[in-house]
Amino acid sequence: MSLAQLLDAGAGFAPEFGDGLSNHLPMALVALKRLGAGDARLQAFADGYATRLQPAPPSRPWPAGDPWTSRLGDPAAWPAYRSLFAEWLANEGSAAVLEQVLPMLMPGCGAAAFHGLIRTAYALQAGHAGELADGLACWAARHLPLGPLPARAGRQADPLPLLRRLPALPSDHPLIFQRMQAAAASPALQAVVAGLAVDAGTLQRLARLGAQAHAGSGNFTALHLVTSAHAMRVLLPFADDPLPALRWYWQAWVAAVAAAGLQALPPVPLQPWRAIVAAALASDDDHLIKLVDSCRAEEAAHGGTDWQLAASRALAG
Question: Does position 90 have pLDDT exceeding 90, yes or no?
Fold first, then answer.
């Protein structure tokens, strides 16, 4: 089957499986296609990955007259959200819908460890309306507010000096988004968030720092800094005012860093892109596939070897 057909078929699976783990099938399929996978490889990956998934719950209509924001953060609302977004997209198109919903979704952009954001961006890149509806539904149902933003913007444009003051805030919660929530309550973290002057260069700085964090640590949470920055770059053109969106992303990004408890590892050799892409295409590791796609895209956008090093780290295990 083609990518579009596999995404159609993937609508039969629930957005999560196990104990709250995100269904990465549609994201990984789009990433594989972007890396050059043919239909046979896409089908083989889908067949293998689907064995862990659960059937999607029946769709439900959105209650007439209820504001679409009324059930943000309610995982049980996903069936109704997918119906709502599917109808909305059919009536108005992806650009118009994204322009309307991003201002309300961005305050919870860490939803499911950024996977609502990431799934939405991959669906947009695939041009698949049904998958875009499901990605937005995931984001809305797992919406993760981490508290209000500071009343005033900070004065420091470079995030690195602020991050050097950020303590590690690990917790025993099993899922990344739960650890992010716990870390976000720290006054020390809130002070770091308050210090940044967000500007047009903020996303590139965070994307590069995320790549450096993963390259230096191999940390699983840091991997999501890389893939979420790629997703932000895809979606940011649809934000009427990108600076508030970036402020919300910065807040969630800092919470992820604090929750990660990064520890430096010895450096790994820089692998050639041809070998990196070949390894990703042959892999059944959904996170590796998405990371390599994001790293390649971010390097093309920003330059430098930081993303190649991050991908090399992932290959080293």
Answer: yes
From the CB of residue 229, how many other CB atoms can be counted at a distance below 10 Å? 28
- Measured at the alpha carbon of residue 286, what is the angle toward residues 281 and 290, in degrees to the nearest 5? 75
User: Which two three-digit tokens encode residue 95?
Assistant: 């650009």
φ/ψ (deg, to 5) at 21: -80, 140
For the record, the structure tokens of 65 come out as 């007259």
Amino acid at residue number 194: A
User: Is 4 within 8 Å of 128 (Cβ atoms)?
Assistant: yes
Angle at alpha carbon of residue 186, lines to 180 and 192, rounded to 5°: 90
CB 28 within 8 A of CB 289: yes
Q: For 128-153, give the secondary structure using H, E and C.
A: CHHHHHHHHHHHHHCCECCCCCCCCC
Residue 250 has φ and ψ, to the nearest 5°, of: -60, -45
- The answer to whether the pTM exceeds 0.90 is yes
**Token reading at 115:** 């996977």
Determine the pLDDT at residue 293. Answer: 99
